[in-house]
Amino acid sequence: MRRTDTITGHADRMRIGPWRGDPALALLSPTPGSPPSPDVLNRALASVADAGYRAVLTPALTFTEQPVFLDRGFSVHERLHLLRHDLFALPGTSAPLAHLRRGRARDVKAVLDLDGLAFDSFWRFDLTGLLDARQATPRSRFRVACIGDRIVGYHIAGVARRLGYLQRLAVHPEFHGNGIGTALIGDALAWCRRRGCVSVLVNTQEINQRALALYRHLGFSDEPTGLAVLALNISESLDK
Questions:
Q1: Do 35 and 97 have their domain in common?
Q2: Distances in Å between the alpha carbon of 145 and those of 4, 33, 137?
Q3: Most buried of 79, 119, 151, 200 (most Cβ within 10 A)?
């Protein structure tokens, strides 16, 4: 696996690493909420090219984070809904069939197998993606939903200052409609509120209508502008 590099400027920091373990595809991650300067972005792209990547992706970026990338030739790979919960009325944390417990190191393989069933090949986690989700915020929570000894769902939630993030939610397709997703979301929201958050953000693919309907049903509301993952072909970028 390729190593992760960091490109820095006066106030900029960009991380470069492989996308979900793909040696041909780089993930170029700016500091959240702080788009890079054109100079730092150009240096990062030069490093990506030198490392032999063929294409580069960004994480999901807000509307205000996107212009410097679009000006450099990036295009929209996929648009995402961004939703917010203000933590007033919370769903319950119990499901009729499953019980929730803390996720453990020995659960990782089962969680990754489940994640592969819940998401398409582009979005599913490998070990690096799972670890990145848990380390994306100063504090995080990893919970699994079990029926007996079988893991049938999980969530990763995070807190940064007074804002919470539902980083990941997955339920085994065989157990949709049994309240497991609701219980996991309720657990994440309650944990964020106990830690002083005023709201929680979550994003989901525009095509994932099941997840979108569930979030709206549980009190999430759509933000005025969504998110977008941007992409750039490296050979094309060298011509600019």
A1: no
A2: 32, 32, 22
A3: 200
